[in-house]
Amino acid sequence: MALVDSLVKERWLKTPLFIEAFKQIKRKDFMPKDVEVLHEINEAMSIGYGQTISQPMVVAFMIEKLEPKPGDKILDIGSGSGWTSALLSYIAGEKGKVFAIEIIPELKEFGEKNAAKYDFIKKGITEFILGDGGQGYEKEAPFDRILASAAAEKIPEAWKKQLKIGGRIVAPVKEAIVVLEKTSENQFKEEIYPGFVFVPLV
Description:
Blueprint: H1 2-9, H2 16-24, E1 45-48, E2 51-53, H3 56-66, E3 73-77, H4 83-92, E4 97-102, H5 105-115, E5 126-130, E6 143-148, H6 157-161, E7 163-173, E8 176-184, E9 187-194
Parallel strand pairs: 3-4, 3-6, 4-5, 6-7
Antiparallel strand pairs: 1-2, 7-8, 8-9
């Protein structure tokens, strides 16, 4: 729990519900056995296939910027280990829904297996999908929130189209985190936070 306490102390985590999610959803449950002893370390860790479980500080920052709420319909792109999907599922709660999309079959299975340690899949809150997150997930659009955990060259048009008015996208673009808020059908308010490193979106 020292890790979560330090994220709170350093103000990466501020919102009570998000702090609760980080305390309840153990990062250790989403890490490969050979590195799970390192779960309290504030660094990204390899989960194989050229992908990582993101640095906790970065996940905290992105979730704070995403501002998910109970009852939200959320698309989690590049779900990888399943950790962010589980955090978002905890926040969205029983009236919410999280669609976790992953392009690498082995990681989709890994993430799903990890998230199944909690009851989100059984309760119908979380659904894991094998697919190209770069295209979003048209079938279930529109979404209240879209989170991506791998860096694109720019925010795909599909994501913007699949977002509700008033909704938010938080995604890495090159070496920055971009926050987009949809203010009308074709207009977005953009904030850019440079200085982050992510694996590329595949």
